[in-house]
Specification:
By secondary structure, the chain is α+β, with helices and mostly antiparallel strands. It has two domains: about 1-25 and about 180-200; about 40-175, Nuclear Transport Factor 2, Chain: A (Roll), CATH 3.10.450.50. About 50% of the residues lie in helices and about 25% in strands. The protein has six helices and seven strands. The protein has helices at about 1-30, 30-35, 50-65, 75-80, 100-115, 180-200; strands at about 85-90, 95-100, 115-120, 125-130, 130-145, 150-160, 165-175. Strands 1, 2, 3, 4, 5, 6 and 7 form a seven-stranded mixed β-sheet that branches. Strand 5 and strand 6 (about 150-160) form a beta hairpin. Helix 1 runs antiparallel to helix 6 and helix 3 packs antiparallel against helix 4. The longest helix has 27 residues, at about 1-30. It is elongated. The mean pLDDT is about 80.
C-alpha cells in the first residue's frame, strides 16, 4: 500500500511539474507564427493626414526605444508627450508616472533596464474625435538578459497641440492570455503540495 502511495505521489509531482513548465514556456515565448495569427485591428476612423501626423509622433517614440540614449530623454519627452497632463501606466501595478518628471523616470527605467521594444505601427488602430485621438498598437519586448519575447499592447490618448499630436495618456500592458497565469498558479500550488507529500512519505 505504501509503495502505491509513493508511486502515485511521484506521478502527480511529475504531472504538475510538467504542466507548470509547459505553461511557463507558453507565457514567456510566443513564436512568429503565433504572433502573425493574432487578429489585427482595423485602421480606425482617423483622416489620413492626421493619421500620418499621429504615426509620426509614435515613430519618434519608437526611435527613442530603439536608441535607448539616456542623454536624449528630454528631447523625446518634449517631442512625444503633452507633459502638462500626461499620465502613463506601466506593465507593473506600481508603475504610475505623472507629468514631465514622471515620463523621464519611465524612459530612464525602460531604456536602462527593460528589453528591446518594437511597436507594429503599420497596424495601428486610430480613432479621431476632432483634436483628440484614441490609439491602440500591438508590439513586443525582448528581455535582454533572458532573451524572452513578450507580446505588448500600447494604448494611448493623443491631442493636437499647436499642430503637433502629443501623448497625454498612455498604458503599456503585456498582451498575453491570463488563463495561462491562473493555470500556472494552480499547477505551482499542486506541485508544491505534492513535493511536500513526497518528502513526507520518505520518512514514513
Amino acid at each position: 500500500m505504501l509503495i502505491i502511495l509513493v508511486a502515485s505521489i511521484r506521478i502527480i509531482t511529475v504531472l504538475f511539474g510538467g504542466i507548470l513548465l509547459f505553461l511557463m514556456l507558453k507565457l514567456i515565448y510566443i513564436n512568429k507564427k503565433e504572433l502573425s495569427t493574432i487578429h489585427n485591428y482595423s485602421k480606425g476612423n482617423a483622416i489620413e493626414k492626421d493619421r500620418n501626423d499621429i504615426l509620426n509622433t509614435l515613430v519618434t517614440l519608437q526611435e527613442g526605444y530603439d536608441k535607448r540614449d539616456i542623454s536624449k530623454i528630454d528631447y523625446y519627452v518634449e517631442n512625444t508627450m503633452n507633459f502638462q497632463d500626461v499620465l502613463i501606466l506601466g506593465t507593473n501595478p506600481n508603475e504610475i508616472f505623472i507629468g514631465h518628471e514622471g515620463v523621464k523616470k519611465l524612459f530612464f527605467g525602460d531604456w536602462r533596464y527593460w528589453g528591446k521594444v518594437k511597436f507594429n505601427l503599420e497596424e495601428s488602430y486610430i480613432d479621431q474625435f476632432k483634436n483628440m485621438a484614441y490609439i491602440t498598437v500591438r508590439g513586443e519586448v525582448r528581455i535582454d538578459i533572458w532573451k524572452i519575447r513578450l507580446p505588448l499592447r500600447l494604448t494611448c490618448v493623443m491631442s493636437n497641440e499647436s499642430k503637433k499630436w502629443l501623448i497625454s495618456k498612455l498604458q503599456f500592458q503585456y498582451d498575453i492570455n491570463t488563463n495561462y497565469v491562473i493555470f500556472a498558479m494552480l499547477a505551482s500550488i499542486g506541485l508544491f503540495v505534492s513535493l511536500i507529500l513526497s518528502i513526507f512519505t520518505i520518512f514514513m
